[in-house]
């Protein structure tokens, strides 16, 4: 066992007060948004700069508007739109095919399917995973676009989709993933399907930003938050949720972080604390003293998965901060920590060193930048920003995240 993270409500309060001193009176005078994996004071400060015409933010705003306008044109979708009911008989249940499983070419009917790690079977997109992704992306970009621009048409479209996908009895997704990542010829669903609801990251934040709009009613807001509370409870108590949370690799990390995120959005801070208490043992088990993550290095996209697991830890640390727990500085006696894991990984992320493990696809720099930025903010160390600066293809969503959503404090030391 390892020591528990220390509870630091006083330090969190002091940090919040110091940060508030850096925010302009115009921002302090308004209510800060109720967001969870986004810093509310910095988000409000960035919006003030956007509305004042700060030219340094124009590129990111242009990208955000492009994403929002594209979202306006996407079809209204629902998980009930599938040709066959799940085993429950309820079309409102989410169903997805496991991504790396393919028909066995040696069998006439292809059953049971066989695994090809890192290679996605296109049959997967016949089920609900793309619908979940489309909903998540659409509400995310429309919600943030509304917040920064104040344009009600973005809010109206986002709220319509929230009602359709989460609230309306005929079209809503049930708040559970009992039939995710099924494998033909092997099972009807697996705990690994839970990781697919990462496509709902940022949705509770975006929904909260829509609370300012004329389109979002109190009933809509309460209903959406209840959906996430119900899903967090299912994650915490179901056989699949418990099993996925106990996974030794990124699946366990992200199940824990998802549970905490959706619980916080649903108002259950005690469940957030329960998830935060699991992280020290997870860091001790996943990260070697030299910073390697063996479970992730064994994958065919080892760089992506190494960063992916750490990104889950950084978001969990943000959520833990919201309830007064410090996970950023946790370290085992033999030196296992988030900082040690990043110290191992950063020379490879930046291209300073050639990656010595498998990586069968191009690295996902837009995602890497998010977790590096969070580490920079948490540690106040510009070395992480130096690595961000070395990532050359940060366009589109990557630029929006860095300049608008996970922005640096104004007093951050220059790299």
Description:
The longest helix is centred in the middle third of the chain and has 21 residues. The N terminus is likely disordered. The strands form two sheets. The chain has a two-stranded parallel ribbon. Strands 2-3 form a two-stranded antiparallel ribbon. The two termini are 37 Å apart. With 415 residues, the chain is mainly α.
Tell me the distance between the termini: 37 Å
Question: Shape from CA axes?
Answer: globular
- Widest sheet: strand ordering: 1-4
Please give the largest β-sheet.
2 strands, parallel
Write down the domain tally. 2
Oligomer status: single chain
Whole-number mean pLDDT: 93
Treating each run of at least 4 consecutive H or I residues as one helix, how many helices? 18
> How much β-strand is present in the residues?
under 5%
What's the gyration radius in Å? 21 Å
Poorly predicted segments: 1-29
- Class computed from helices, strands and strand pairing: mainly alpha
Number of strands: 4
Share of helical residues: 40-55%
Order of helices and strands: HHHHEEEHHEHHHHHHHHHHHH
SSE diagram, text form:
Elements: H1 9-21, H2 25-28, H3 40-51, H4 58-72, E1 95-97, E2 101-102, E3 114-115, H5 129-149, H6 152-167, E4 179-182, H7 203-209, H8 218-237, H9 239-245, H10 250-265, H11 269-276, H12 279-286, H13 294-297, H14 302-322, H15 338-349, H16 365-379, H17 383-390, H18 397-405
Parallel strand pairs: 1-4
Antiparallel strand pairs: 2-3
Helix pairs in contact: 4-5, 4-18, 5-6, 5-7, 6-8, 8-9, 8-10, 9-10, 10-11, 10-14, 11-14, 14-15, 14-16, 16-17, 16-18
GO molecular function: lyase activity
InterPro entries: Alginate_lyase_dom, Chondroitin_lyas
Signal peptide: 1-29
